[in-house]
Design a protein that fits this description.
The protein is of the alpha/beta class. It is built from eleven helices and eight strands. It has a domain of 189 residues: 3-Layer(aba) Sandwich (Rossmann fold). It has an eight-stranded mixed β-sheet, with helices on both faces. The protein is globular and about 55 Å long. This is Alpha/beta hydrolase.
Length: 271
């Protein structure tokens, strides 16, 4: 548990376990705490590095708008602070977008790239979903913000079957949705507007795992299929019966896929 300074901002990070470094990048509404339940398994063979982007968790808040390139440099600052030469980089959703941009700029640091529920651009459809989130955040209406952000990240079946758990989550999240959090969310959402690496990702040569969820209504399956087509050394997996928040809906599948891919040597080939 530590902080480093980047552009006079405090960046929070944690290091757990020993082994090959695995850096985990949060989704937009997540923080380092979102991964605690997975640490016992992930730390068995990996040195797990968690970090909060600017405007997330324990890292400092920004005062003005920015783009995701600053989060790429936040990640680079953490890697430099820990003196890491090679890492496995995992990102989900917003974190996957940052991971793709990091791979394009600093690919020599990567051993493997793992992308869950990730898109290669903020298209008009996704942008307008994000602007709906911004509208609710600007109104400081916790119920409205919950209703436009949370149900859509789960599959209908999971949400309905686990409605008691969802209601407990709602009570918890209402306490999180204070003015500071909502203002930070407005900036985070805005930072993804204009994101587009479609014309560049064919240049990524590192071994890459791309994972979709069948009922992802935020970053649909076709978005990951596109990335798979463009990245030469990539492997694709579809998680059935899951929404955008695949690690919470399907934790066993999530861990099996992630740990399995990390354990396989890059050079393994049959023919």
């Amino acid at each position: 548990m530590a902080f480093l300074k980047y552009n006079n901002k405090n960046i929070y990070y944690e290091v757990h376990g020993e082994g090959t470094p695995l850096v985990i990048l949060n989704g937009i509404m997540m923080s380092h705490g979102s991964w605690q339940v997975f640490l016992p398994e992930l730390c068995k063979e990996n040195k797990v590095i968690l970090l909060d982007f600017l405007d997330q968790g324990k890292s400092d808040k920004m005062e003005e708008s920015y783009k995701q390139d600053i989060q790429v440099e936040v990640l680079k600052a953490v890697i430099d602070e820990l003196k890491l030469d090679k890492i496995n980089l995992f990102g989900i959703s917003y974190g996957g977008e940052v991971a793709l941009q990091f791979a394009l700029k600093y690919e020599s640091y990567l051993n493997k790239l793992i992308l869950f529920n990730t898109t290669s651009c903020t298209n008009p459809w996704l942008q307008d979903i994000g602007r709906g989130w911004i509208n609710a955040a600007e109104d400081r209406n916790k119920e409205a913000f919950y209703n436009v952000t949370i149900p859509i990240i789960y599959s209908p079946g999971f949400y309905t079957k686990n409605i008691d758990w969802m209601n407990r989550r709602k009570d918890l999240l209402y306490k999180v949705f204070n003015e500071e959090f909502l203002t930070a969310m407005i900036r985070l959402i805005g930072s993804a507007e204009g994101y587009d690496v479609r014309n560049d990702i064919h240049n990524i040569k590192v071994n890459t795992l791309i994972v979709s969820s069948e009922y992802d209504f935020v970053t649909p399956v076709n978005e990951q299929e596109y990335i798979k087509e463009k990245i030469e050394n990539s492997t694709y997996i579809l998680i059935k019966d899951s929404g955008h928040a695949s690690m919470y809906e399907r934790p066993i599948e999530f861990l099996t896929i992630l740990k399995g891919y990390l354990s396989i040597e890059n050079y393994m080939k049959i023919v």
